[in-house]
Specification:
Blueprint lengths: L1 E4 L11 E5 L7 H17 L2 E8 L2 H5 L11 H11 L3 E6 L2 H4 L3 H12 L2 E7 L3 E2 L5 E2 H11 L2 E5 L3 E2 L2 E2 L2 H10 L2 H8 L4 E7 L4 H4 L5 E5 L9 E9 L2 E10 L10 E5 L11 E11 L7 H18 L1
Parallel strand pairs: 1-4, 2-3, 2-5, 3-4, 5-8
Antiparallel strand pairs: 6-7, 9-10, 11-12, 11-16, 12-15, 13-14, 13-16, 14-15
């Protein structure tokens, strides 16, 4: 997959292509419906397949969200798109200037002239451009003017409810992992770097890897979860604690993973954790022995779950 980051794309010699346009945060089942349609049409029409996406998320720039909470990191999003088999990954830096670009100008200069796009696939609720000026009706009108086709994909639903990134954020925040998997089509994963912690777990005989997330993720409620842990293309079983370690009176939030069957040094390495099942909420213990006993029970439960 050819990853191209630009705000003009005018310096590249590109093949004629079909693109899906969107932020694609989370790449849930609704997004997958759009992306699968893009790949199918690309094969039918003999065009290269691509997506056009934006970083940071537009809501972080124009939506008044100074701290937008993400479902995927950029690396995770790119990997999913690559694994699906796309040829191009076009990424634009979303800014106030870009947000103020008239929709007609954006389509003509960026999509038609520079990207060489012959077909656009979007969700049926698509909006783009200054104050959401662009919509499906206008996009199809411009398609006739500039000689490209438009396919609008109806939303993916569970029952009567549309799958959306905002609903998924609410499910993560509420810790409703079963419903979350139904919307995402997979378990929620967090990518991050292993950083130095206090070393308490090692002293207790339960060493942990302290994870610094690689983006501003929306996170589940504090507590202990059964997880799969990915490092160097290997998969391990583990337990993770999200929280503030009240037994030790810590104020800083941490994400700490214990891997019963791992040996080695993870410090400064990038890893990924996949949340599978909630085990218990975070609690304060009267003494360290009770804490260790409970963690060992958490590990036994995790082994049964996974």
């Amino acid at each position: 997959m050819n990853i191209i980051r630009s705000n003009t794309f005018d310096q590249y010699e590109l093949d004629k292509n079909i693109i899906a346009i969107g932020s694609f945060d989370g790449i849930h089942k609704g997004h997958k419906k759009i992306l699968d349609k893009t790949l199918t049409l690309a094969e039918e029409k003999g065009l290269k397949s691509g997506i056009l996406t934006f970083e940071p998320h537009p809501q972080e720039v124009v939506g008044g969200e100074n701290n937008h909470y993400y479902i995927n990191s950029k690396a995770q999003k790119r990997k999913i798109i690559k694994d699906m088999g796309f040829d191009y990954y076009f990424e634009m830096n979303f800014s106030q200037d870009l947000a103020k670009t008239p929709f007609d100008d954006f389509v003509r200069k960026i999509i038609v002239d520079n990207l060489k796009t012959k077909h656009i696939v979007v969700g049926s609720d698509f909006t783009l451009g200054h104050k959401g000026d662009g919509n499906i009706k206008k996009l199809k009108k411009l398609g006739k003017k500039y000689n490209f086709e438009v396919t609008a994909v109806e939303p993916k639903k569970i029952g009567e409810h549309k799958i959306s990134s905002s609903v998924i954020r609410d499910l993560i925040k509420a810790g409703r992992l079963d419903e979350l998997k139904e919307h995402l089509g997979k378990n929620f994963k967090i990518e991050g770097k292993v950083v130095e912690g206090f070393g308490r777990g090692r002293k207790l005989g339960i060493p942990t890897a302290n994870i610094k997330p690689s983006t501003n993720y929306i996170l589940p409620p504090d507590g202990v979860y059964a997880v799969y842990f990915y490092f160097n293309e290997n998969k391990y079983k583990g337990v993770v604690n999200f929280g503030h370690k009240p037994t030790f009176k810590d104020e800083n939030f941490t994400i700490e993973v214990h891997l019963p069957n791992f040996e080695g040094d993870l410090y400064e390495e990038y890893v990924e954790i996949e949340l599978v099942e909630f085990i218990r909420g975070e609690k304060e213990f009267d003494d360290v022995d009770n804490l260790v006993e409970t963690i060992n029970k958490d590990i036994l439960y995790m082994e049964e779950v996974l």
